[in-house]
Specification:
The complex is a heterodimer of chains A (245) and B (260). By secondary structure, chain A is of the alpha/beta class. In chain A, 35% of the residues lie in helices and 25% in strands. In chain A, strands 5-6-7-3-8-9 form a six-stranded mixed sheet, sandwiched between helices. A three-stranded antiparallel sheet of chain A has the order 2-1-4, with helices on one face. The longest helix of chain A is centred in the C-terminal third of the chain and has 18 residues. Chain A starts with a strand and ends in a 6-residue tail after the last helix. With 260 residues, chain B is an all-alpha fold. Chain B has a single domain, classed as MetI-like fold, CATH 1.10.3720. Helices cover 86% and strands 0% of the residues of chain B. Chain B contains eleven helices and no strands. Chain B is globular, with a radius of gyration of 22 Å. The chains are: A alpha/beta (245), B mainly alpha (260).
């Protein structure tokens, strides 16, 4: 069974320690979210896992067959149209027409209009660019998906749709997801495991397993869990939440 | 190939959009005529006289040789500075040290007026082809060099990282990332270098050569033949117009349609 295993990972920029003794493993079909304050090395950790940064101390073993990364900013190629951007990572042996059909179907599913497909990124709104970037990551049907807060720029409706799309892919295609978020509710709704990362240096200080299957988690469950989560003294400390008098 | 087809398909529309420019050219001709009626034949010949003189020029075989020579010198000079400037510019942009070091040298090259290069070139190479081409090369080289340097310095790490995250191979990276990015810097610099080359080639010929359009301009000056001089200038501008608006501008529109 494929897995992503991170063990005793340390990382430094110059003399500053960014990550300290990171240990976790992500199994097939599971979702792990990393929650923590900004500037805590979350993105660095994700990049190390995705092999976009070189591991200097510790180990990252990735046995998934394929992976994709959706960045915090859309990172579209400005000289390619929406459709070309979505098709960019595909290099399977398919005819041009089939590729286009596949990309179009996915784009429409993500709430883009047909008229948007021939536009250049400069003519798309921020939220639309984010959807394109998301579609580009999912078109290759990756076995492992890295998400760096890709939902943050989206409106509530679309956020929900994309979240359920991710859940569906996890259940049906056994896709695994490692994702970063500020949004505790989002983490509770989607993940099997939540890793709490404190900053300076980034260190996992707590792990929360959520046993209830994702499809059974209704709003009430998420609210209740979130409240309990935010009442936790450790979390208050990490996020520096002021207790109102 | 698809790109060329698209350029050709959009070309009629581009021409149709030229009415505004044509109107402004006619306005300019009207002002010119007004100047002729105020100052007389010797100072400013009428547009009509100039165009007649231009018609004579265009049917004159020795003028054809001159035009051919000038274009040839201009294009060779431009071609050399394009190749050399692009190559060294990209290379210099690749190394931080090289780009820092080349900056002051480029400032010096840009700062020296072309007329000074002509004097030096005349001393080094004597009168003739080589002097003209050398001046063209040295004057347009920095423009291409700086364009290429900026292009290769500004390749975005973020986009490269994005492509790495999809495990995209080197050739696709060149095709989808490096080439379009570099080209968006190189193309405008080539266009301005070409304009520069065309002006410099005439100036250099006027001062240092016995044939070519520049030399013909020198002869017209010594004969005080103002219609002839203006006819030559009109031909020079005509060539520039043709290259700029009929060849380069439509290409530029396609190439840069993704820009703001």
């Amino acid at each position: 069974m494929a897995e992503l295993r991170v063990s005793e990972l340390n990382f430094y920029y110059g003399f500053t320690q960014i990550l300290k003794e990171i240990d976790f493993s992500l199994k097939e079909g599971k979702i792990i979210s990393i929650v923590g304050p900004s500037g805590g090395g979350k993105t660095t950790l994700l990049k190390l896992c995705a092999n976009l940064l070189d591991v200097t101390e510790g180990e990252v073993n990735n046995s998934f067959s394929s992976s994709a990364f959706a960045f915090q900013d859309a990172r579209l190629l400005p000289w390619k149209t929406t459709l070309e951007n979505i098709m960019m990572p595909l290099h399977v042996k398919m005819s041009e027409r089939e590729l286009k059909e596949k990309a179009t179907a996915l784009a429409l599913k993500f709430g883009l209009e047909r008229s948007d497909l021939d536009k250049y990124p400069k003519d798309l709104s921020g939220g639309m660019r984010q959807r394109v970037s998301f579609a580009r990551a999912l078109i290759i049907e990756p076995a492992l998906l890295f998400l760096d807060e890709p939902f943050s720029a989206l409106d509530i409706g679309l956020k929900k749709e994309l979240q359920s799309f991710v859940l569906e892919a996890c259940m049906k295609q056994k896709m695994s997801v490692l994702f970063i978020t500020h949004d505790v509710m989002e983490a509770i709704k989607l993940s099997d495991t939540i890793l709490l990362l404190k900053s300076d240096p980034g260190e996992i200080v707590a792990r929360y397993e959520i046993e209830m299957p994702q499809e059974q988690r209704d709003d009430a469950f998420v609210f209740e869990k979130t409240k309990a989560f935010l009442d936790d003294a450790l979390i208050r400390e990490i996020f520096e939440i002021k207790v109102s008098a | 190939m698809r790109f060329l087809l698209k350029v050709m398909k959009d070309f009629p529309w581009f021409l149709w959009s030229g009415w505004g420019s044509i109107a402004s050219i006619f306005l300019f001709l009207a002002l010119w005529e007004f100047g002729f009626q105020t100052y007389g034949e010797l100072i400013l010949p009428s547009p009509k006289a100039v165009f007649e003189s231009m018609g004579m020029l265009l049917s004159d075989a020795s003028f054809h040789t001159d035009l051919y020579l000038t274009i040839k010198r201009g294009l060779i000079g431009f071609g050399v500075s394009l190749l050399v400037g692009t190559f060294f510019g990209l290379l210099a942009g690749y190394f931080i040290t090289a780009s820092v070091m080349s900056r002051p040298i480029v400032t010096i090259l840009v700062g020296i007026p072309p007329i000074a290069w002509i004097v030096l070139a005349m001393i080094w190479f004597g009168l003739g082809d080589m002097t003209v081409m050398f001046t063209v090369i040295i004057a347009s080289f920095p423009i291409v060099f700086v364009g290429a340097l900026q292009g290769s310095r500004t390749i975005e790490g973020d986009l490269k990282e994005m492509m790495d995250s999809f495990h995209i191979g080197f050739f696709q990276k060149v095709r989808d990332l490096y080439f379009p990015h570099l080209f968006s810097y190189l193309f405008p610099s080539w266009v301005s270098a070409l304009g520069m080359s065309w002006k410099i080639v005439i100036m250099a010929e006027l001062l240092s050569s016995s044939d070519g359009i520049g030399a013909a301009l020198a002869i017209a000056r010594s004969h005080l033949d103002t219609p002839q001089a203006l006819a030559l200038v009109s031909v020079i501008i005509g060539v520039l117009f043709f290259v700029e608006y009929i060849i380069l501008e439509p290409m530029k529109r396609e190439v840069e349609s993704w820009r703001n």
